[in-house]
Amino acid sequence: MTLRWGILGAAQFALNHMGPAIHAARGAELVALATSSPEKAAPFAAFAPGLRLHDSYEALLADPAVDAVYIPLPNTLHLDWSLKAIAAGKHVLTEKPMTMQAAEFDALIAARDASGRLVAEAYMIVHHPQWQKARALIAEGAIGRLEHVDTAFSYDNRTQPGNIRNRPETGGGGIRDIGVYTYGSVRFAAQAEPVTLQSRIRFEGGVDTFAQVTGEMEGPQGRFTYSAITSMRLFPRQEVVFQGTKGLIRLTAPFNAGLFGEAQVELHRGGGQSELFRYPGVNQYMRQVEAFGRSVAEGLAYDCPLEFSRGTQAMIDRVFAGATEI
After folding, report:
1. Which pLDDT score is estimated for 1?
2. pLDDT tens-digit readout, 239-256
3. Residues annotated catalytic, as ranges
4. 152 in the same domain as 114
5. Looking at the domain assignment, is residue 111 inside a domain?
6. DSSP secondary structure string for all residues of 138-201
7. Residues with Cβ < 8 Å from 247, sequence gap 6 or more?
8. For residue 303, what pLDDT is reported?
9. Which range marks the domain in which residue 198 is found?
């Protein structure tokens, strides 16, 4: 079965990452794009010959030759267009954050269940073997009892005032853009949920540009302490460390694997023992598209269901609600 995809909007992220991933993925075909700009459509058509162009999102949703829709629109538009796509009978993959509040996921879950379609947030890292390996190592006790997790994700876009991440009206800010990784990745790998959270946030022009979150989370092995930093005003950094009673796991390039650097899992244990698991050349966007297609074709459980994404959004909501402004 080949899943025929359409994209709502000619976003740069869709052009550089998800469009090519859909085109290259097994069991997938990029067949349509909705944009009113022929100039923005041209580079998509260059790698996807025969691409049908629609001048409105509604027209693409009405296209009977589109089975699934990828939605990379600004954050504030994700919920509305996801619901419209479900109502049009499409399978839906929407960029994160899929909603602005956790409670809004309830409408998506209800629409998904009523439609029988696969609807998911585009949380690609769960499909990468780097994260699947980390999750397995923690679960098998490779580092003993998990005691502490450090996460950090930063970049600097202060020279781009027009970037949607720097605009409050489009749901910008570092937490919604990259906190979804520093929070959700730990929930996934440690199979844990937050118990206590404290946050310190710096705002500029109505969006958060720095956030420090500390607290406790709880998983199958019990409670552990947690620390996360996100920023849109710091030198680029990506790192996650899981520290246990008998060792630690460090992930390099944990979020932008292959772009920030090579995806690796370092396992360090007592006596100077260490193992390195390397994952060069893995395209997590393509793996996401293929996993989505297999779930549709074979009725398999999807690794990132809406219920999981709701949990990450609930954690984001708590970070904002309990914040001290700095």
Report:
1. 84
2. 999 999 999 999 999 999
3. 96
4. no
5. yes
6. HHTTTTSSEEEEEEEEEEE-TT-TTSGGG-GGGT-SHIIIIIHHHHHHHHHHHT-EEEEEEEEE
7. 142, 143, 144, 267, 268, 269, 270
8. 94
9. 125-282
